[in-house]
Every structure is written in C-alpha cells, then in structure tokens.
Amino acid sequence: MTAALQTLPRATWRQRLLRLMPWHRRLAVLACLGVFCWAASGMLHPLMGYLQPRAQTMAAPQQVVPLDDLRSPAQVLSAAAIERVQALRLLVLAGEPYYQARLPGELQPRYWHARSGEAVDLTAAHAESLARHYLGSEESLTYGGSLGHFSSEYAFINRLLPVARVDTRREDGLRLYVDLFHDRLGTLVDQRKAWFSAFFQTLHSFRWLDAAGPLRPLLMALLLASILSATLFGIALFVARRRARSFSRRLHGWWGLGLAAATLSFASSGAWHLLHKQTAEPWPAAYAASFEVALLDQAPSADWLLRGEQLFGLSLLELDGKPVWRAQGQQFGMMPTLHYLDAAGRELDSDSARRHARQRLEHYAAALGLGEMQSLELQAQFDHEYGFVFKRLPVFKATYADAKNTALYIDPLDGALASRVQDVDRREGWAFAYLHKWEFLAGLGNGYKHLMLGLVALSHVLLALVGLSLLRRSAR
C-alpha cells in the first residue's frame, strides 16, 4: 500500500497554485464591496477639489487700530466683574476699537468698546464682517452660531476650533466657517460640496459606522485584506494557467495583471493609513493661558508704536509667566512689523517671539517626555512634512533627539500645537502620498494627475464588474 502511494505523481507547482481558484473567487466577492466603495469615491475626490467654493482672498483683514483715548483692559473688564481671561486682543470693527476676550468655558468671544467700556454683543457682526471680507462682497449674511467640535460638514481636516458659521442667501446655500479669535477662514461649504463630502465620507471613510466603535476599522481592514489577497491569488492563477478557456477570462486575467501594481499600491497604503490612525498616540492637552485682568492697567497708546508704524492688531500672550502684548502692523506704509511689549507698553527684546515659542514647546515636550530641544526655526511655507493639511502658517518648528525623532510645530499666534511629526508619521505620510495619492505624478500638473487617478479607479470598477459576471457564469 505504501509503495503504491509513493508511485502516485506529486502535484506540480501549477496544480498547487490552481487550487487557489475557489479562494480567489470567495475573496473577490468581498473585495468587490471595497473596490466599489473606494474606487467610486476615489473618482469623486478630484471632482470635489475642482468644485470647491473659493474665497476671494485667503489673507486675514487688516485695519488700522486707533489708539487715542482708550481705556485700559483692567478698567473695562473689572467693571464687568471679570478677574481672569484666557485670551484678549484689541481689534477694529466698523471703524471702532474693541477689546475681545475669551473666557473659560465659552465658545463665543465677548466684546467691550475700548473707549466707552460698554459691553456690546458683536459676535454676529464680527462673524458676518469676516465672511464679507473673505467673499469680497457686501451681500446679506446671517450668523449661524458657534461650533466647538468637528462635524460631518466641518471635518477635522479644517483644524481650526472654535469657529462661527455664517450663512449666505445664495441659491447654492453657501456658508462659511470663520475663526473669530484670530480672524481666520476655516472653510467654505455649499450644498454641492456638502453632498459630495457626505457621499465621500460614507463610501471612503465608512463614517456611517462611527457609532459602532471598533467595528468600523475592523470592517475596513477586512475589506482591504480581501483586496490584497484576491489580487495576489489572481496573479498566482494567471501565472499557473497556460491559457484561459474563454476570451472573457483571458481579458479578466490580463486586465487584472495590468492593474495589479496599482491595486496593491492603493490597498497596502490604505491599510497602513488605517492602522496608523488607529495606533497613533494621543496629542497632549492644549496649553491654556490665564491672565489676571488687574495687571493690565495700562491703556494702549500711540507711544507703544514704532516710528512710522500703523497698528493692525494687538493680542495678549504669556511670556516668562507674565502677560505681554504682541503688536503687528506696518511701518512707513510698506514694511510689515512684529514686536512684543510688556503690560506697560515697554518694548521687549527681539528674541521674545522665539522665547514664547520655546516656553509653549516646553509644555508639550514635557507632556510627551521628549527631553531637550535640539533646534528651533521659523517655517513660513508648507513642505512634505508639514503640509497644507495642517492649515497654520507661519509656525515654529522644534526638533528633538528622542528615539522617534519628534518634531513639534507651534502657532505663534496663540501657542497652539499645530502638528507633531515622528519617524512613523514620516514613513506613513510618504507611503500615503506616493502610493495612494500618486504624488509622483505631480509634475504633470493636478489636472493630469487627477485624470490618471480617475481612469485607474474606473478601471478597477469595470474589472470588478467583469469578475462578478464571470463568477455568475461559473455558478450557473
């Protein structure tokens, strides 16, 4: 009996590979769900970029702040029984100077006239004024309230919080989200963008499963694994088969082989991106400044200005444990200025900006256990590591010699942590940029790059349809 068994021919490598056919078919059915969701929404993504409503300008408004006959912040806020504030600045609305204060636990800022000391409800007027500036029009607008968290419409990619929503009366339902504390634009959304974004988040990010907790990433990981496995099994079957029985099968085989590199590129980088987001370390708690109003007993005046300077903004920061003013303006009508003053209006040294950044960075570095800072530099442009997705510019970049080669980015406007980048983020970011978004095609221009990606995504959808058709025939 043993001798007889030994004389049976052993299965060849081709036969072993052909045994993968049932698994290829089973996994392909599951993979098709992922292909239809991700390829269809992937084709939509470039269209979303082209149809994105545009602002007339991205620069924050600049108005000359009058410094005559102002009251001190202590005079104004003490009368309102306010002892401490988290942030304070002097700004101009409708040609009048106002103190804008941020109080603990409040999303909306509070306003007082800097000359009369009268409390004024200017939240709506301020938000609408910013919206008109960014739209470049004087159309009728409506304040739609403040937002303290990200939502399906105002997503995390917009970064800035809290923001105020302003609605236009246009037929497309255009609305703007603006940062009232720094006069920045969060984003613009019209009905078309809202619909596309909802569709994209449903199909590409599976946001409809957010309430299911870990089920969402598990389902996405399962679909990505099925795509990778079905693709690899398909390559093995193509190699093992000398010639398919029908033209449809030969077409499916050659088509799948031609797309295999792109499929593996998209699916593997997508899986890495998903895993990276699930395992990312949480950011440290944001630094919250607190200023004692009684210390701000000096009213801003023309004596605080540099020679020939016009002031555009005056905001309060914490430096060396004390309140200091950050003054931004223009000298002789052409040269931008940025300098720091103590609470009494005395000029501070030119290193104040870097010292402020260092002190805010110390807070975040201590929370992350990073040790001593290795370098600190001002970054005024986006690059491959600190990309456009992070929104804030300019920023201070600090590097550390920890095991993960961490870099922290600080917004000098408020000391907020704009980004934290480590080696694993750099590797994943490179893979996602070049294997998922195909940034190697950027030299052709965004139009051609998006056209290529769209055609490849469409090819995946058609390949999946052909595969399902063949599966149906086999079942019959």
Note down, in words, how this protein is organized.
The chain crosses the membrane at residues 218-240, 252-275, 451-471. It comes from Ectopseudomonas guguanensis. By secondary structure, the protein is of the alpha+beta class. Among the domains are: 12-52 and 201-282 and 438-475, no CATH class; 73-189, no CATH class. The protein has eleven helices and 17 strands. The strands form four sheets. The protein has a seven-stranded antiparallel β-sheet. The protein has a four-stranded antiparallel β-sheet with strand order 6-7-8-9. A hairpin with a 6-residue loop joins strand 15 (395-400) and strand 16. The relative contact order is 0.12.
Question: What's the topology here?
Answer:
Elements: H1 2-7, H2 13-18, H3 21-51, H4 73-78, E1 84-85, E2 87-93, E3 96-102, E4 110-113, E5 119-120, H5 123-135, E6 141-147, E7 163-168, E8 175-179, E9 184-189, H6 191-203, H7 215-240, H8 247-279, E10 291-292, E11 309-319, E12 322-331, E13 335-342, H9 352-368, E14 373-379, E15 395-400, E16 407-410, E17 417-421, H10 423-436, H11 446-475
Antiparallel strand pairs: 1-10, 2-3, 2-11, 3-4, 4-5, 6-7, 7-8, 8-9, 11-12, 12-13, 14-15, 15-16, 16-17
Keywords: Membrane, Transmembrane, Transmembrane helix
Organism: Ectopseudomonas guguanensis
Transmembrane segments: 218-240, 252-275, 451-471
